[in-house]
Design a protein that fits this description.
The chain has 285 residues and is an alpha/beta fold. It has helices at residues 7-23, 36-44, 108-120, 141-149, 165-172, 202-215, 219-247, 272-279; strands at 30-33, 48-51, 73-78, 96-99, 125-127, 131-132, 135-136, 151-156, 177-179, 195-197. Strand 8 (151-156), helix 5 and strand 9 (177-179) form a beta-alpha-beta unit.
Length: 285
């Protein structure tokens, strides 16, 4: 669960931040939050927080409509092998394609059983990934985008997550979305004209998919309206970073273009204490 919309977790983080500030008094920690609720919770715990959803990092050059790819599936679900992804909610959909992978949440035997369960639902359900010894191999981003373009609708089925990269990938590829209610910020860029949030029940998911599929919303419309929102917030973050650089004494000119590409900008997974260990000796005034 990648969201900070968990008061107990944020409270512990506040204590860690206080420890970090004592150890590194000249360091400044800034939180880029996926939604306003995360920003509010972190600010209340003493963090310096601003709203800047990490789906801004998704590349519209990679994820895009491919006009020559025929639609073969009613929906696509990009979700890793994990119970929290609630794949079962999609089992009533007639034509479904999965993009999936393992990060080790389940043991290899359990992950293989998970894959077999997906395969057993219907002959019209398919796993896009190549299977190696019963486990899914990784697809490139371009291959994932091709799969998206084979589907009419993108699915977001977890109850608690972060901003969920694949939700933005769907939108960049021009797919409307069926989602369940969720915490974590994936709905920040949703629009009720092409994103339906329905109860976490297989029949409700199937009916919503059928509705959006039958509406045949132009993909360039979904993508274009999403990019309008994304570009406005990218400008805000770029201006913030330029001001931060000036405040820190940089003589570089202000950033004029979006400085991050792909999905890896501004990311390094570590706890506060792990970062402290990487930094080394505390700053001395």
């Amino acid at each position: 669960m990648w969201t900070m919309e968990r008061p107990a977790v944020v409270a512990q983080m506040g204590r860690d931040l206080a420890w970090y500030a004592r150890r590194f008094p000249l360091h400044e920690v800034i939180f880029l939050c996926n939604n306003e609720e995360e920003r509010r919770l972190i600010a209340a715990a003493g963090g310096n927080a601003m709203f800047s959803n990490h789906n801004l990092m998704i590349s519209e050059d990679v994820f895009r409509p491919l006009p020559d790819v025929p639609v073969e599936f009613d929906a696509v679900y990009n979700g890793r092998i994990s119970p929290m992804k609630r794949h079962y909610l999609a089992f009533e959909i007639d034509r479904l394609v999965h993009v999936t992978y393992s990060i080790g949440e389940l043991t290899p035997p359990a992950a293989r059983a998970f894959i077999r369960r997906l395969q057993a639902q219907s002959p019209r359900h398919r796993i896009a990934n190549p299977l190696v010894d019963g486990l899914p191999g990784r697809l490139t981003s371009a291959e994932v985008n091709h799969v998206y373009n084979q589907a009419a609708v993108g699915l977001c089925l977890s109850a608690v997550e972060g901003a969920m990269y694949s939700s933005m990938e769907y939108l960049m590829a021009g797919l409307p979305i069926v989602s369940t209610p969720s915490l974590g910020g994936r709905d920040v860029y949703f629009d009720p004209d092409y994103c339906l949030i329905v109860e976490p029940e297989p029949t409700a998911i199937r009916r919503a998919v059928d509705r959006l599929r039958d509406r045949a919303i132009p993909r360039e419309e979904v993508r274009g309206r999403t990019l309008e929102k994304v570009r406005a917030q990218r400008l805000e973050l770029t201006a913030f970073l330029s001001a931060l650089l000036r405040r820190k004494g940089s003589s570089a000119p202000p950033l004029e273009t979006w400085p991050f590409s792909g999905t890896e900008g501004l990311m390094r997974w570590a706890t506060v204490r792990e970062i402290a260990a990487l930094v080394g000796e505390p700053d001395r005034a």
